[in-house]
Amino acid sequence: MQTEGGNTVSTNIVEQPAEHGVSPNSDAGFTIDETLAQAVQSGNIPGVVAMAATRDNVVYEGAYGQSGEEQSVQVSADSMFWIASMSKPITSIAAMQLLEQNKLQLDRPIGELLPELANPQVLEGFATDGRPLMRPAKGPITLRQLLTHTSGFGYAFGEAQLLKYVQKEAIPDVTTCTPNAFRLPLMFDPGERWHYGISLDWVGKVIEAASGQRLEEYFQQHIFGPLGMVDTTFAPTSERRERLMPMHARLPDGSLQPIPFELPEDPEFYLAGGGLFGTARDYLKLLQMILNEGTFNGLQILRPETVRLMAQNHIGDLQAGKMTSAMPELTQDVEFFPGMEKRWGLGYLINTEATPEGRSAGSLGWAGLANTYFWVDPARQVTGVIMTQILPFADPAMMEVFNQFEAGVYRQLDA
After folding, report:
1. Inter-residue contact 199 to 273 (CB < 8 Å)
2. Domain of life, per the record (predicted)?
3. pTM of this prediction?
4. How far from 46 is each of 75, 232, 248, 275, 403, CA to CA, in Å?
5. Given this structure, which CATH class describes domain 26-86+231-261+269-414?
6. Residue 405, φ and ψ in degrees, nearest 5
7. What does pLDDT average to over the chain?
8. C-alpha distance from residue 62 to each of 29, 47, 104, 321 (Å)
9. 299 forms bridges with which residues in the sheet?
10. Considering only CA atoms, which of 152, 142, 141 is closest in space to residue 119?
């Protein structure tokens, strides 16, 4: 993937054997191993796990770097990561399971299920005395709009006006997992445009209301358990926390510094849009299920027609994927595939053209704030995931590693 605004750099690949990458294809895999090893050895990234698979087989697995307080723990396929917004596709899958059971509908006003969304308000600006200027939204919010980020909700870190509102009204950050964090206005009328935000956190509340289960319980019973995603959870145990790769900040001089990072261990609500922790190995199973149109290891998670529905464009001619930053310590301004029209399905970004790395038009993908990324290519029947823990999002060094990893996977397929 390329980002605009100069956010790409080159990673030099040196001719030396990989230390501990695993590659069924020695030629193409060797190149991927070198890319990952050199990125870690040079200090460009603190550690990385990358995996790729076809419908039936894992075709690449590599892990490089050290973690732990003393940097003494080897990064491995079982290393834990905060996957942040890579939680969103999982939440979307859960919502679609309930849609299959007729417990949810895509286009009914969601306020019928969640009264707190029955009368949404739009932020129009601020009065001269600083008071927020609000008006009623012109129409109701629907589940489809929540799933496609066209509801009007945003993130304070991605919108200056919303950040001003949050500061003025003393709204806690959504990562506090407290009910008051949801007291955000809409930035525009539902359906008017695409804007990334807390919509999927609201979908988490929708799932709980429709299923009668708390989100962790629902996910474990209906997604993680059936798929064998043994480590993915909103509430990591102490053993899993010992395997958690530390968070790092990219400093102005380009160096990396470990920083503290925690989400509440016993939250008032689970952060459906960004609260999950897990492993690359677990996430690859989810992606293989998507490749297999809803089935993995003989168990059906979704119907094939539901998987195909999720992969279709659901925002019409609206453009998706371009995001600005009001908090550069968390994310840079970023646009995946600049110059290309992007659409959004029910859970993923859709690229409408083939990419330089080899991804087919109509593929699916997304990412997490701490620089975790995935893609699913139904046409080529391949999927991949790569994870590190760096802030801000769209880190240039990690984006370049992702680009090279993805390109290497396609070279391996073509070999």
Report:
1. yes
2. Bacteria
3. 0.91
4. 10, 22, 8, 22, 17
5. alpha beta
6. -60, -50
7. 91
8. 9, 11, 40, 28
9. 296
10. 141
Give the residues across from 385 on adjacent strands: 51, 374
196 an active-site residue?
Answer: yes
Given the residues 23, 67, 79, 88, select the one marked as catalytic.
88
Which segment of 69-83, 102-116, 118-132, 205-219 scores lowest on mean pLDDT? 69-83
CA–CA separation, 51 vs 42, rounded Å?
21
Contact 331/197 with Cβ under 8 angstroms? Answer: no
Helices (H), 129-180: 143-147, 160-169
What residue type is 163 in one-letter code?
A: L
Q: For 132, how many CA atoms within 13 A lie in the half-sphere containing its CB?
A: 19
- CB–CB of 320/149 below 8 Å? yes
* 309-366 residue pLDDT tens: 999 999 999 999 889 998 999 999 999 999 999 999 999 999 999 999 999 999 999 9
In the chain, domain spans: 26-86+231-261+269-414, 98-209
User: Which of 366, 375, 376 lies closest to 344, judged by CA?
Assistant: 366
* pLDDT above 90 (res 26): no
What does the block give as tokens for 166? 């949050």
CB atoms within 10 A of CB 415: 10
Exactly one of 67, 76, 79, 85 is catalytic; name it.
85
Determine whether 103 is an active site residue: no
**Angle subtended at Cα 279 by Cα 214 and Cα 409, rounded to the nearest 5 degrees:** 130
Mean pLDDT of the region 367-381: 98
Contacts of 167 (CB under 8 A, 6+ apart): none
**Residue 271 tokens, joined:** 């952060």
Closest CA to 20 of 75, 95, 89: 75
* Per-residue confidence (pLDDT) for residue 266, from 0 to 100: 83
Pairing relation of β-strands 390-391 and 247-250?
A: parallel
Read off the pLDDT of each residue in 201-207 and give the average, rounded to a whole number.
98
Catalytic residue among 196, 218, 283, 348: 196
Angle at 94 between CA 146 and CA 381, to 5 degrees: 100
Catalytic residue at 88?
A: yes
- With a CB cutoff of 8 Å and minimum separation 6, the contacts of 322 are 334, 335, 342
